[in-house]
Amino acid sequence: MKKRKIAFFDWDGTLSADGKTVSAENRAAVAAFRAAGNFAVLCTGRCLGFLPPAALALPMDGVIAGAGVNVLFDGSPAGLRRFADGSFSGKRVYNRAMPDALVREMLDAYLPHGALCCKLEGETGQFFLHPPARFLPLSPPDFEIFSADDFFARYPTAPISKATVFTADDTKPLPLPALADRVTFLQYERYEELCLPGESKASGIVHLLNALGIPPENTLAFGDSENDRAMLSFAAVSVAMATAPADLRALATRIAPPADESGVAAVLREYC
Question: What Å distances lie between residue 77 and 4, 59, 85, 191, 271, CA to CA?
Fold first, then answer.
């Protein structure tokens, strides 16, 4: 009997070359993979409030968002859907938001650093402290905030999954030492992510595998950047995009063509 596989797909730079659209080839390959009796799950660093329409229109059974802290699953033929009120179909397998005290500590730490934009990423939207001029004016689901007190006064029930910090001129920001033992810093060329310690795309995958009773040896993962490292290290078949950093490609069992060449489809077709 054929073993049901489950594949996890990063969005930016993996399924999508521009972060907004997905090729017809990648979409068809994901649909064929599901039609063959397998599960497909979007596994992204983006928060639930910042999932693009094209990603949610894909034939997916679930999503792991916020780099592991939100895990939703709907294995019905229709797959995972987001409703008009922002809620999702299916089951919430796992959810963990940043404690309010940590959110306040992060905002207080970055408030004196006007050259650094601290973006809180959550389930209902994104909240920008010191947004660069090129981002203004913001429009929902993006909101400007001016301090920790301002954020909690206006958005007291907005759960935050993680934060992203970047500069107005796209130079690499440096981690603030005051937060070093509170968050996990993931460094990229032009920005950094601040995540809850112990959480990653791999930990989100483990929560979902446990809920579904699927063994790790039945997993595939596709990714291209630093927050994919744990996921690629965990999956039985790990596929790094050709555009991934060299050390990330070295972790993978397969290398796929770039996203703008529908690299996901080139590999995934072998498992349909």
Answer: 15, 9, 22, 38, 19
Q: How far apart are the first and last CA of the chain?
A: 15
Round to whole Å and give the CA distance between 267 and 222: 10
Question: Cα 112 from chain centroid?
Answer: 28
Give the model confidence (pLDDT) of 139-189 as tens digits.
Answer: 999 999 999 999 999 999 999 999 999 998 888 887 788 888 889 999 888
Cα angle for residues 240, 195, 58 (degrees, 5° grid):
50
Query: Which residue do the tokens 């068809």 mark?
Result: 28
For residue 237, the number of C-alpha atoms closer than 13 Å in the C-beta half-sphere is 16
Could you count the other beta carbons within 10 Å of the beta carbon of residue 137? 7
Alpha-carbon span 258 to 13, nearest angstrom: 8
> Is 0.85 topped by the overall pTM?
yes
Quote the CA–CA distance of 143 and 123 in Å, as a whole number.
13
Distance CA 55, CA 80 (A): 11
In the chain, the DSSP E strands lie at 6-9, 39-43, 62-65, 70-73, 91-95, 116-122, 126-129, 142-145, 160-167, 184-187, 191-195, 219-223, 237-241, 254-256
